[in-house]
């Protein structure tokens, strides 16, 4: 496992959203109501980018087909076509003044 720095804490704010490509991982860091989440940045249904997705309550809504995922657990909560797997979430790691993630290389 290797540590990858994503962002400095000073740059984070509610509404923050940024996509990262690290090796074969496509990740999106977001902050909502003071809580930070690191999830895969493409919808598991058809790989549509979630960077422009809406957040409604505790759910992330894919703009392509309206699939909904619980932002805290990644669980699929609604689908409009065939079901897909849950959204992958990643544990964030605090290091000095940065927030990052541990990933297999």
UniProtKB/TrEMBL annotation:
This protein's UniProt keywords: 2Fe-2S, Iron, Iron-sulfur, Metal-binding
Keyword Lyase set for record: no
Cofactor requirement: [2Fe-2S] cluster
Domain Rieske: 33-101
GO molecular function term, any single one: metal ion binding
InterPro entries xref list: Rieske_2Fe-2S, Rieske_2Fe-2S_sf
One Pfam short name: Rieske
PROSITE patterns: RIESKE
Similarity comment: family membership: Belongs to the bacterial ring-hydroxylating dioxygenase ferredoxin component family.
UniProt-listed PANTHER family: FERREDOXIN-RELATED, RIESKE DOMAIN-CONTAINING PROTEIN
Protein name: Rieske domain-containing protein
Protein's organism: Zhongshania aliphaticivorans
């Amino acid at each position: 496992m290797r540590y990858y720095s994503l962002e400095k804490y000073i740059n984070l704010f509610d509404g923050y959203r940024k996509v990262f490509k690290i090796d074969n991982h496509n990740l999106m860091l977001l902050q909502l109501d003071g809580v930070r989440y690191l999830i895969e940045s493409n919808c598991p249904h058809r790989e549509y980018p979630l960077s422009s997705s809406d957040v409604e309550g505790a759910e992330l809504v894919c703009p392509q087909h309206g699939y909904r995922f619980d932002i805290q657990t990644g669980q699929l909560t609604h689908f409009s076509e065939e079901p897909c797997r849950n959204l992958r979430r990643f544990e964030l790691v605090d290091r000095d003044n940065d927030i990052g993630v541990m990933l297999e290389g």
